Each structure stands twice: as structure tokens, then as C-alpha cells.
């Protein structure tokens, strides 16, 4: 344990004062964020009260807390926002990326006391409470972030109300909670029933979307490319998918460990053997990697932000991307690879300029590609929106051939 | 694409003198650029007329030209230096305009020089309103709707469509005459009727008003591969209607959702592409309708700007440095992020803190000026603060202004909420405090929003601060309450006020409870990657990131926000202290809160604390730094009055002060002590006395005889300094300063007999306790009575003999000995009727240090710091830092350097729209300075005039109006002007004297005289007069003099208000008939060494 770690821990344990940044008076109830390594940060309850367990991760976006919270990929996580002021603009249904907020817990520096935006329909804490997201405010989020960066993503718990108990008990609860590695969460976030969404404009055919935690924006941009969508549950079989006579297939983003998603990998291999054009985002990229026969691994603390530079190998250009991933594909950058699963030649099409992590794959002998980042952004820059067009072009070219 | 290999030398154009709207930030960006270019092996040629800058130090370029930034001069430099390219995007609008002029005059084409950083067509697309409007529309964004109306009915139809208020601008009238906001139909009828009448073509321009909208700014960068990133978003707390330079601003934007922010980002990127800024930075301003979200693009600057300097300091992303590299052809992804070292520059900084910038105004220097904030920038400086929350950053920023009443307070009863809101509805300096009082008095957020247009979120934060104050005022002052207060940015002084305690008592209680700040790091990435940047800010959080080293260290206190009298010149000294002490093996620690400066570049010192310069904040930094290693001491003598004001408190807290002691600093200000020192040294001061009351002042003035010069102690820039000619005027003076709190028992008023017709002299010297080194002796061109900061001066002196120079040196030595100075000292003398009088002495670095350093090539700023830190002059000479001979007597072939002040009068209008008076006096009002350097005085003076305001005319008409006492002396120079071919016109009295002396002169009517023929003011307005010579009589700005000077300022003509200026000007007119030759500082240096 290094010096700064000891200091943070000592200070955190000693420091019983609740900063309650969002409130002047001592009105808010107490809460604690407990990390697996025994560090405890004390603050004020925010949103729902109770107990939330999950993997603690930090997100660095300065805008877009609503999109982050409604992104199903955050299911099962405790999200620490590095941006200090959260909730200023409230929430509006227009910006929801799914029907609810997914993180187990939510950690902020300064919770806004009011909502100020012409589109706001509701305050953030009200929405957090509605969806049972147990939050904590008034903690040193930078200290927590630095800890997660140095030690790695950890299991954690947010405790407030009756759940707030003695330190040893809370630490024990956190240490007994499940690890993120090896965890399959697709069933939690996926649609139970298949449903259809019509294309915007002239349709070019049906796209089979495997919902592993899909975001509203993704569906919108796919529809805008002329796809009639059939959104399918995560446990769909090859026969069920093909029954919709799709012209192409799509795997969405989603939470969990790709190594624990064998059935979706098998399904994808089946689709690829049909030479159906395929596009995958985020979790979908990891599953394409596995379907092609590559491995995946857990990153020390993941990429979660909307300022992540990615190099597009084909054009040499940089895209500022929105990212949210704790796992990555294990493949060599800068050379033509051969799919260990027999799908021919493959290349790493995109990689992170920060740490050279694989951010995109392209199969050269079958019509399939995927990216680890979020071209639908939400939250984040729209720099990579053209990938939806690229997918359409691939499908149109395949149809023409 | 990697770096271009066809660019081996680059001419960088600087921004010239500091003026309102274009200030120290361009020294920061230019210095960064020069540094980077040289690191890249490029030969750097620099032109900048401003000697007070770091960038014009000979170390930062291969050839440094302190010359006027005119196309002619730049062409001469181009012909001499043959640069491959010109970089015009780092020197503000001045450099961009110069580049356009070079292009339009065919100079670029003639010499085959390429512009890098921005192409001419890109600059034009950004600047031309019509081109830009179309480009914004093409990008799918909006501009404010407008229409031409030739009748009142058309105007009313427009108002029905777009709503009130409507902006009415008559076409083709001078200076915005007749334009305004029509709030209802009656006003619209009146404005449009008047406007159509006064317009030469009978039409008015109507524009939809966006007053009260939210205002945002984005800083973007783009490279040759079309990679574009947004470095920073900035939100104006003040709504549209207040210039962004005068607004309180916050970074990042805090009241936009991601969808709304991304829309601004998309538009911004689209526009930078369409404008074609292909390498470098630009900033774009947006207005957002708070009711609908409609976005209007206000403007863009295709260059590094004031906001980019702020964005660099706010994010840690060095925009200017990267812009310079992009101009050489590098791509963003080819350069590392300076801060993380491992990630590339092609990213968008993420902040995990809040930055607040507040403007610093100087309206007290221009009592007649209208202090309402508008779309014309009026602030002279700014302070920035970093906090973990908005409330914390805002309160830190407000106390960084170091201005009485600039911080929130809870004294007494706030008053009536409605009345306070009414006051706050007009944007002014200090409105934020009025608003805080209104909220304290019970105004609701909705009411405050209605009155000001400020977003409710920001208003709620002020309500929060008031609530915390209420909580603090009651109950025990325990750890919880103190933490709550500190978390919301309260200073010990504010807590003390709320609790009826002394600041020191609060501090003691706080320390006893262990409530102390921690220091966080500005790292561009919100903690995602480890960063080693030595750039810190305080917060009251859990974890500190500063690990003090075990080295010997020196803390340098900077000068805070720029203001008239305390500007970039002091930053220059601080930066050099950092460089010199680092070279001498010290660890250097800088404390400052001014985002415009080189001192707050994280590259300048070993460690930078971006913190307010208050005793509390500095003591906390001392506490952390003293925790390890050896804190050799704190330097307070280089940053002007701000750090000097902290010296006593630091000393009392046991903090070692380097160099001259606080006692000695006070002795120089304390009249009795200082008089004793002069007596012992056998030196003469003007008859004088010290008053703490009005009656005392009158008694002294009558005893020592009028005129008297009155001067409050412990002020800089001649604040409250005036020449008073009689007792009624002295009473009037006390009435004027009554509300400013600058005279009282603790701050006595110094009353000196004023020496008429004296030559004023400034000396900058260094004393080590044994030896005196004179940096330079400066002779003022104006006679005594005009503040030294506003006076032009020459180095070497051209009107003093060897014996006088030696007498001055000897007097300076005796004063330095008497005061027991260790470090810099500045002494002001006056020769009156052949007798040397001591006016004042200041044992600190002066405003003229950089000028002296540039004029003589002596690094006196570095030497000042070294002597403060214990070196002797002999040691510095042995090291080669100081030359063998000091600057008392210079060789006959030494170049002559002239400093000229640049004044901001054109910026200010009175409440009824008239110009403020431009008469100079003992209170300093200039914002900046230029230097002209050449082989003789007339040419150097001519260059200084060209650099300050475009230069003296060499033909045309001269208007002369002289006070009686000046008439005799003015005859000869005016005669010479006539010989040079100028036509002479004068008012009746003056004309009579001139005619009797054989000068052909035409008489012109005074403004106040009745008559049909055009008055002198009409002639000036009509542009028929080229040089105006108007010496005021009796020290009172008489109505006529005022009208003449106001018209002159409005038409930007040469104006001389003293006879000595006139003499210099005549010589300069002759000198400027030939094209100027240019010589770089490096060439001068080589000649000196030869």
C-alpha cells in the first residue's frame, strides 16, 4: 500500500464529517461508499436510500449524466462521476437511452439542488429514487477515482438509511458480493420479447438486432439508415433470428464479461457462416472478437468517458469517441491476422491512442466489422456517426453482389 | 503529416502594447510559441513593440525586433531576415491585421513569404460579417435575424415577428450614433424615426435582440489531417449583452445537457472547417435562447485569443504551444499531451474541478466614464480561481480581485430586495455582490433571474452560499462548520466577519481543529491517467496530491490580476525570478491567480499554485511547502503592491522574507522615517507633510505652499494622486476620495510641494548591502506632475550631463544604504532649478524594469531576484550575469530607447455618450507601453509614437492652443513645424503670440466662442487637423480643452499636452521622413560586446 493510499484510507476512516456539498444544512441523511479494499468514504444519501453492490468504475464525461445512467451497459456497476456538479439540468425523457436507470450505485461530488433547463421534466434525484439507484454525494470523487485508477476497478457498496451499519459489516458485505469478471448480465438488461421498429424512409431490409443492453440512440440511427429493426432477446437462437429473414445482423453494447456469453458467441458464429453482414458495438465488438476466435480480457479500470481518442487505421484520422468498457479484445495491432475460428483474414481497424487497446475489428473475407466505442455516442461527440452509414453501404453492396 | 522540412525560419508577430481587450495573454501565447519553434530547430524572428513582455527577451528568439508593428517595418525586417514563413495567429488582432495588410500591400507575394497558422482567405472568412453569416447558415446554425427598414411601419412589422427589444442601428453614421435597444413600440417609433432622419441614406438596420440569452464559448483546435478537438467549453454567468471579457465566466459549461453541448460542438467543428482554419486554434461564441434552446453563432476568431489563454490555464492544455507546432505541420496525434506524457494531444480535456474567471475593472481611474457593462470590453484584467465546486471557485475568484467589496459579505442589513434587484438589473462592476445582497434580502431566484438573465443554477449557488453563511453565524465554530464554510469557498476573513472575530482568531481555531486545505492537480484527464504536472489548486477535500520535495526552495508571490499601475511589467520580474533562481539551483514555487500571464504557465516554475494572493491562501502554501526540504524564503518585492501588502503578515507568522525587510519597505513609505534618512544622507525632498485628516492636509498645504501633490500611501499607479492648486480644490479632492477609503489613520495622505517645470527622473538599481548597481537612469519627457507610468521617457537620458548622472547615482546609493535595501530599488527624482529633489523611493522592482532590461540588454530582473536570494553584485558580475559597468553613464554610441505609454481613453464614454477627458496627470491611467529604439533620440521617439498609435504625420495642419506659461517656450518648435511645411492654426490668444514671433498662423474659433465659421472641434471632427497641441491652463480641464481633447481621441490624431512633448515630437517628425532602419536586440548586444 503506497503512501497516498494509506493517507486516503486513514483520512477517510477518521473523517466522519459529512461534507454535504449540495446542502447548506445538515438535512441530508448520511451515506457511505465502501470499497472492497476497506476504504470508506462518507457523504450524504442521494437518490434512493438503501444498499447497492456492484463494481465501482469512474466516468469522466463532463456532460451526459442522464445518458450514462440510462445506458444498460452500466448495469451492476457503481458509477463515480469525476465531473463535480451533477444534476444541474435535471432529466428529460427525450434523452433517455433506455426505459430506466441501470447502475446499482451512483457517486457524485456536488449534487445540484435545483433543476435548470428548458427541456427538464424531472429532477435527477427523483429519477434515481424511482429507479432505485442508491447514490452518495459530497465525497472526494477525485480521490476515489485515483484510487480506482491505481488499484483497479473494485467491488464496492453504497450504504445509506437502515443499510448504513458498522464499518466491518459493510466491508464484509462488499467482499461477499459477486465479481464482475465471469458475470453475465445480458438477461438482466435485454428485452423479454422480440419487437419491431420501422425504418425511417425507404427500407432496405430487416436488421436483426440482438439486444444485449441496446441504447435508444443506436436503434434510432440504425432506423435512419433504412433498416426495419427486429429487436431480439439475448437468448435468441439462430433459427429464431433467421426466421425474420434479416438482411444483416447487429449486436449491441451491454454489461458483463464477454467470456461469460458463449451462447451469443455461438449464435454470432452461425450468423457469420451465413455471411450475413454484421455490425457490433462495444459488447458486440467483444463478442465478434470471441466469435472470430480471439480472446478477451478485463482492463485494469476500463475506459469510461466521452473524450477518448481513437485512431482509424484506414484513414489515419483521429476520432474523439464515447467509451464505456471494462473488457477488451486481445488482438495484435498493425498486421493482418487470421481468424483462429476459421473466418479468414481480420484486422484491428481502430485502436486507442491513449493505451493502444483494440477499439475496432474488421473481417476482410466476410462482411463483418465492429467497434469497441460508441458511434451513437449519447453521451458524447458525434464524430463516429458515419459508421452507421458504413454499415448500410456494406449491406447494400452485399445485396447488389 | 510530420513536421514540414521547408520551414527553417519563422517571423512571429506579437500583439504590441497592452490595451483593453488585448493584454498579457498574448505574451503568454507568444512566449510559448517562440519557445516551441526554437525547440523544433526553427530560427525565430520576432517583432513586437512591447518591451514589457517575456517574449521580447533576447533568449526567446534568434532575432528580436522591438519595433513598430507596421507593414513598412515588417517588410524591412522581412528583407533583412528572409524568413520562410510568418506566424500571425498568436499576436491577437494586431498580428492578424498586420498579416492582412502585408497581404493586401503585396508584401508577402513580393518576398515569397508564406503565412502559416491561418491563410488569408480563412482570416477573411472569419472576419467578414457577411461571409461569416453565410457560412454559419451553411453549417446549419443560426445568426441573429436582421432587416433593413426605410419606414417606421416596416420596423413595427419586424418587431411583431421577432419581439421586443429590437436593436436599431442607423446606416452610415459615425461611432454608433443613434443606435440602441427599442423596448416597446413607442421607443421603436422614436429610434427608427430619428435613425432614418440621421442616416445619410434614410434607412436603419433592425436586429433581433438576443439580450439575456445564455452565452457560451468553445475553444477548438484543428490539424492538417482535419482532426478537430474541443479543448474547453466556457459558459458566461452574465447573460448576452456583457462582453465575454467583462463577464464572470465558468469552465466547463455547467447548464447544458449533453445533447445541447454536442450540438454546439458539431456546429463549432463545422464552422472551423468551413472557415478553413487548418492548423491551429480558434474560438467560437454562441448564444442560446434559455426558453427554446435556439442557437445563434455570435462570432469566431481564427486565432489564439484571450479565451484560449484562459482555456489553457483552465484545462492545462497548452493551446498556443500546440498551435505553433500544428503550424509547422505536425498532427495532433503526433504530439504527446504535455501533462500525461503518455497520451496524445488529440483528445479533449476532462475537468474534475470548476474554474471561475472574474474581470478586474479600473473605473475609479475614470470617474467620468459610464460604468455600465456592454458589448464593448472595459475590464483591464482578470482573476481566475480553481475549486472543486462552483461556489468554492467563485468565492476564491472574487477574493483574488483584491478589491474592497469584491467578495460576498453579510454585514449589516442587506436593504430592500426590490431596490437591490433594480440596481442589479444593470450589469456593472460588482453586480454579483449586489445580487448576493438582494438574495440575502429575500429576493427569489425567479426574481433575480428575471432581473439579470443569469441562469437560475448560478443564482441558487449564491443562495447556497448565503445559507452556509447563516449556518456559520450561529452555533459553535466547530470542525463541521469550518469544513462546511471552506467547502463553499469562505475565507477566514469572511468567517471572522460572520462571527465577529479577527481573521487571525479564525485561523488559529481552524488550525487547532486541523481544518486545512489539500492540493489537487490540474491534469487534463480528471484523474484517468497519472500526471506529474506541478500545477495545483487548493480544496478542502480528503486527499492531497502535493508531495513537497526536500530541495531548497523559494516561493515567489505574483502580482494578481492586471490593473492599471500593476500589470505585465511585474509579472516579467516574477517570471525572471523563477528562471534565475532555478538556474541558481533553487526549487521555485510560483503563487498567482492571473490566467493571462507567463508566470501562471505550469512550465515557468518548478511548482505552480493557482491561488488567490491573500495572507490566508499564501500561509497555507507555505505550510505545505515547509513540510519538507528548506524553505529559504518568500519573495514579495517583485509582484508590485499585492505581495508587498502581505509582507508584514507573513513576517508575523514567522515566514522568512527574502531581501529587503518589511521594516525597510515601510520606512520608504513612512514620511517621517524617510525624511530622517534623507536628512542623514544630505538629500533634499520637496517641502512636505503627512495628513490623516482633511484639516491637517489643508494646514500642511497652506504652510508648504501651493501647488501641492497629494498622494495616498501604500498605493500603486498613483491611485488618488493629484496636483492641487488651491484650498477649495483640496476640499474638492477629499469629497471625491471620501468613499474610496484610501486615506485614514492607517493610510496617511502625503502632501508634497509640487515642483513646477521640473525634469523627472526614474532610477532602477540593485543594492546588495555593499555595492550599488544602477540598472538605468530614465529621463521623463513630460515634466514632473504626470505619473511616471503615463510619461514617455528616454534611456539614456538626453538632457542630463555626466555630473548630474553621477549626482543621481550617488543619491540613489545613499538612499539604498539608508533604507538598508537588499535587492531592487526604484527612486524618483526631480531636477528643479538645477537642484536634485528626491520625490520617492520604493525598495521593490519597478514597472520600468523590463524596459531597462530591453534598452540596455542587462538582465536586471534576474539580478534583482538573485540579490534578494543572497547573492552579491560582485558574484553576479563574476558569473557574467551583470556587466562590468553599471547603467549610470552609457557609451556615446549606445542606442537610445524611448518608452511611450498607451492610454485607454477611447474605450470609455460618459453616461451621456461623450468621450472621457484624456488629460494626463499624477494618477496613472495607461494600460501599456511601447518602446522605440534607434541610434538617436528623435528616431527612437518617432518609432515610439508609431508603435503607440500609428505615428506622427509628416505633413498637414497643426492646431495650437497654449496656456500662458507655455507660450514662450513653444514658439521655436512651432516655427520649426512651419519650416517643415505644416500649416499652423491657433486660437486667438495663442495666434497673437505666434504671429508676433513671425509664424504664419490662421486663427480658429474656440468651441465656446460664438460664431458661424467651424470651431476647432468641428475641424478636428472633420479630420482636417493632423497634430493637436493643447496645454491645459492652471491644472483644470477647462471646457474647451476637454472638447478639443475628446475630439482628438475620437479621431485618433496625435495629441501633445506639454511643451516638452512638443519639442520631442518636432524632432521626431523630422526623423520619420526617412524609412526606419531596424536593428535586433541581438545585434545591439553583439555591438556592445564587441
TrEMBL record, chain A:
It comes from the Bacteria. InterPro entries: Anth_synth/Amidotransfase, CarbamoylP_synth_ssu, CarbamoylP_synth_ssu_N, CarbP_synth_ssu_N_sf, Class_I_gatase-like, CPSase_GATase1, GATASE. Residues 1-207 are annotated as: CPSase. The keyword ATP-binding applies. Pathway: Pyrimidine metabolism; UMP biosynthesis via de novo pathway; (S)-dihydroorotate from bicarbonate: step 1/3; Amino-acid biosynthesis; L-arginine biosynthesis; carbamoyl phosphate from bicarbonate: step 1/1. The active site is at residues 282, 374, 376. The keyword Zinc-finger does not apply. Its EC number is 6.3.5.5. Residues 29-159 form the Carbamoyl-phosphate synthase small subunit N-terminal domain. GO terms for biological process: 'de novo' pyrimidine nucleobase biosynthetic process; 'de novo' UMP biosynthetic process; glutamine metabolic process; L-arginine biosynthetic process. GO terms for molecular function: ATP binding; carbamoyl-phosphate synthase (glutamine-hydrolyzing) activity. NCBIfam families: CPSaseIIsmall (TIGR01368), PRK12838.1 (NF009475). Small subunit of the glutamine-dependent carbamoyl phosphate synthetase (CPSase). CPSase catalyzes the formation of carbamoyl phosphate from the ammonia moiety of glutamine, carbonate, and phosphate donated by ATP, constituting the first step of 2 biosynthetic pathways, one leading to arginine and/or urea and the other to pyrimidine nucleotides. The small subunit (glutamine amidotransferase) binds and cleaves glutamine to supply the large subunit with the substrate ammonia. This is Carbamoyl phosphate synthase small chain. It comes from Agrococcus baldri. The gene is carA.
Automatic annotation (TrEMBL), chain B:
Mg(2+) 3 binds at residues 828, 840. GO terms for cellular component: cytoplasm. Mg(2+) 4 binds at residues 840, 842. GO terms for biological process: 'de novo' UMP biosynthetic process; glutamine metabolic process; L-arginine biosynthetic process. Its cofactor is Mn(2+); Mg(2+). One of its GO terms (molecular function) is metal ion binding. Mn(2+) 3 binds at residues 828, 840. The keyword 4Fe-4S does not apply. ATP 1 binds at residues 129, 169, 175-176, 208, 210, 215, 241-243, 285, 299. Residues 1-402 are annotated as: Carboxyphosphate synthetic domain. InterPro entries: ATP-grasp, ATP_grasp_subdomain_1, CarbamoylP_synth_lsu_oligo_sf, CPAse_ATP-bd, CPSase_dom, CPSase_lsu, CPSase_lsu_oligo, CPSase_preATP-grasp. Residues 950-1090 are annotated as: Allosteric domain. Mg(2+) 1 binds at residues 285, 299. Mg(2+) 2 binds at residues 299, 301. The large subunit is composed of 2 ATP-grasp domains that are involved in binding the 2 ATP molecules needed for carbamoyl phosphate synthesis. The N-terminal ATP-grasp domain (referred to as the carboxyphosphate synthetic component) catalyzes the ATP-dependent phosphorylation of hydrogencarbonate to carboxyphosphate and the subsequent nucleophilic attack by ammonia to form a carbamate intermediate. Large subunit of the glutamine-dependent carbamoyl phosphate synthetase (CPSase). CPSase catalyzes the formation of carbamoyl phosphate from the ammonia moiety of glutamine, carbonate, and phosphate donated by ATP, constituting the first step of 2 biosynthetic pathways, one leading to arginine and/or urea and the other to pyrimidine nucleotides. Belongs to the CarB family. Composed of two chains; the small (or glutamine) chain promotes the hydrolysis of glutamine to ammonia, which is used by the large (or ammonia) chain to synthesize carbamoyl phosphate. Tetramer of heterodimers (alpha,beta)4. This is Carbamoyl phosphate synthase large chain. It comes from Agrococcus baldri. The lineage of its organism: Bacteria, Bacillati, Actinomycetota, Actinomycetes, Micrococcales.
